[in-house]
Design goal:
- This protein is of the alpha/beta class and about 675 residues long.
- Helix content is about 45%, strand content about 15%.
- It has 22 helices and 22 strands.
- β9, α4 and β10 form a beta-alpha-beta unit.
- The protein is elongated, with a radius of gyration of 45 Å.
- About 30% of the residues are buried.
């Protein structure tokens, strides 16, 4: 069969290609359009386009040659639909629409829509459910884009389902789509995976949200194409509802899940549990992002839809692999599978890392930096890793957050024995038929139960980093942090007993010999923290870089360059400050030397003057320095005639001796 799918590279388009590729008699030939040709599935035979008249004509011919044409309103416009209607020889502008020619053969046209077109439809039944047969009563929410979707549905049904028409038109309206990496619930899973507690439930949260796995919707499209010969759109309902059918609980009628159940279910499965708050609409954060707005609108709908009878039939998708429904019981019943599909579709991978090494070798700082870079939780094993502690750690490693995101385990002095308890478990080996029963004609006890020790693949780390540093360096770092020397000795002895003792298997031996995991031995001496983190990052990304909402490689390279530039700048500033301090010290030293030289000069000058005075004869000294002042003093006494001539003369000589000294200087 030749099949045309509009936008084969879209979320729905890729799933349609996957489900429609294989037919009952072999492989179908897929044609279609693409939003981005590079993302189109490789099995698509040829991509068409209507970018210019020549290409548009070729695309119309391709549409006419296909037995099945599928278009979804999620990724198509009204112009796309009008082009397809015209290509299939119908004039949509005439009233009623008229055929403009004949096709080579009959065509099945399936328009994939959304249950949101039913958002404001009132139920007429006593059980509150809406069914395919109510499609003429469907009403979208006023002012929403789904009013145009309803117009598109009505136009397609009006144009194709006429007496003598070669085209049978059907609408498949699905509930909120999930699975295969997510579309509607993508933001909800993203926030939960990243551990961001920003989820909100729009009050009161008890509204019913119809959902469907996107592959179950695609299988309904496939089933319609296979059963179309027995369906006359003029007599039967050409409208199909694709929704899950959650099982009824004890004493409770089957109903779609409530909004609060969906949100809390995602949080509890992928992230750490917290009670998601219920808020009123006026306190709900508004955003202009179309994806977020679509999610809010779908989560606010309150509908109970019954799946189409064709989905409930025993032969539904019996030839698919696997046959039948994928998620008949609904979103919540298959939440783990859906979460795994989300991780696979978004290329998210649990990064499980163990970091070991001697005390104060830098493993704790490395663990923290690696955990921050890969956005995974950091766990720390206590120094005394007894059975109770190991059991508690095993429970943490098995938690949902570690299952989906991974972890960084700072394992302290753990050795082979503790790792064996933490990452292996006992499994009972099934008995063979010969072991189940004793030989014929003999009686005896059956063979003893065999227990096999196996590696826990879900919790065992995929990357192991062991820091290496000499004891002297570790001790120096420990003391620099103010740690007690006796505590360091105790921890070093514990680590040596588990990993450095002859004839004792080490932690590295467990992962290399038992778990078959390569170990990165990381020397610490001569490396700073940035170098250690970069070496660890390269080792962890050696098997492929997980998406995990991490910065791109270009952003990481830019960050590394900026850090190195900042480091160089800091070192340059430190060198300049040291040089300036040295220059200041040299200047102070030169100034002190100058002052000292000046003091020596003054002392030498004084000593020279004193020596000169000492060398004068007494008579000459008295005549030069004493007699003139004494004579002047006696003359002054005679002039003044003081009451105490001796005291007056002494004061006079003292004053004039100071003046003489200043004069000599």
């Amino acid at each position: 069969m030749r099949i045309f799918i509009h936008n084969v590279d879209s979320y729905i388009g890729k799933v349609l290609v996957k489900e429609l590729r294989r037919g009952d008699g072999g492989l179908n030939r897929i044609f279609g359009t693409a939003l981005n040709a590079a993302d189109a599935p490789s099995v698509v035979k040829r991509l068409a386009s209507k970018d210019d008249p020549k290409k548009a004509k070729k695309m119309a011919e391709t549409l006419q040659s296909c037995r099945l044409v599928v278009m979804d309103l999620f990724n198509s416009s009204m112009d796309d639909l009008l082009f397809a209607i015209n290509a299939l020889k119908v004039d949509p502008k005439s009233d009623p629409p008229k055929a403009t020619g004949e096709l080579e053969g009959d065509v099945i046209f399936v328009l994939v829509s959304s249950a949101m077109v039913w958002a404001s439809t009132e139920s007429q039944g006593s059980d509150g459910f809406l069914r395919d047969s109510d499609f003429e009563k469907r009403r979208p929410r006023p002012g929403s884009k789904y009013e145009q979707w309803k117009e598109a549905e009505d136009l397609m049904l009006k144009c194709f389902n006429r007496e003598g028409s070669q085209v049978k038109g059907f609408v498949v309206a699905g509930g909120a789509l999930y699975g295969e990496g997510e579309a509607a619930f993508s933001q909800m899973f993203k926030d939960a995976w990243r551990g961001i507690q920003e989820q909100k439930i729009l009050s009161p949260g008890t509204n019913r949200v119809p959902t469907v796995h996107v592959r179950d919707l695609a299988r309904l499209v496939r089933q319609i194409s296979l059963s179309s010969d027995g369906i006359n759109p003029l007599e039967a309902v050409p409208y199909f509802l694709a929704v899950d059918q959650p099982p009824a609980g004890e004493g409770v009628a089957r109903k779609p899940p409530m909004q609060k159940e969906l949100v809390q279910g995602v949080v509890d499965e992928v992230s750490m549990h917290y009670d998601v708050p219920i808020v009123s609409e006026d306190k709900f954060d508004f955003t202009e992002e179309e994806e977020i707005l679509d999610l809010r609108e779908q989560m606010a709908v309150d509908l109970m839809l019954e799946p189409s009878a064709i989905m409930m039939g025993e032969e539904y998708s019996s030839s698919c692999d696997p046959p039948g429904w994928l998620c008949k019981d609904g979103f919540l019943a298959h939440i783990r599978t859906i979460a795994d599909e989300f991780c696979s579709g978004k290329k998210l991978r649990a990064v499980r890392i163990l970091v070991g090494g001697p005390p104060s070798s830098g493993k704790s700082g490395l663990s923290k930096a690696v955990a921050e870079h890969f956005k995974v939780p950091i766990l720390e094993l206590e120094d005394q890793a007894d059975d109770k502690c190991l059991q508690k750690m095993s429970e943490q490693l098995s938690s949902n957050i570690c299952r989906y995101r991974g972890y960084v385990l700072d394992c302290g002095p753990v050795g082979f024995a503790q790792a064996e308890k933490l990452f292996r478990f006992d499994v009972e080996v099934p008995k063979s038929e010969e072991e189940e029963a004793p030989p014929e004609g003999e009686e005896g006890e059956p063979a003893a139960v065999k227990i096999e020790r196996r590696l826990n693949e879900e919790t065992c780390p995929t990357f192991v980093i062991l820091t290496q540093a000499p004891p002297g360096l570790c001790k120096a770092k420990w003391q620099a942090k103010g740690g007690a020397p006796d505590v360091f000795e105790q921890r070093m002895q514990a680590y040596a007993a588990s990993n450095l003792t002859a004839d004792i298997h080490s932690l590295a031996d467990f992962f290399q010999d038992v778990a078959n995991i390569g170990v990165l031995n990381l020397p610490v001496a001569g490396m700073d923290e940035e170098d250690l983190v970069e070496s660890a990052r390269i080792y962890i990304e050696s098997k492929g870089r997980p998406f995990n909402y991490l910065p791109s490689e270009e952003e990481i390279a830019t960050e590394i360059r900026e850090k190195r530039a900042l480091k160089v700048e800091r070192e340059a500033k430190a060198a300049a400050a040291a040089s300036l301090k040295h220059d200041d010290h040299e200047a102070e030293k030169r100034e002190e030397e100058r002052r000292h030289a000046e003091r020596l000069r003054i002392i030498a000058q004084h000593e020279a003057a004193q020596q000169k005075l000492h060398d004068l004869p007494l008579r000459e000294y008295l005549m030069r320095y004493m007699v003139p002042n004494l004579t002047e003093g006696l003359i002054e006494v005679c002039k003044v005639l003081p009451d105490n001539p001796v005291d007056y003369l002494a004061n006079f000589l003292e004053e004039h001796s100071e003046v003489s000294a200043e004069h000599k200087k």
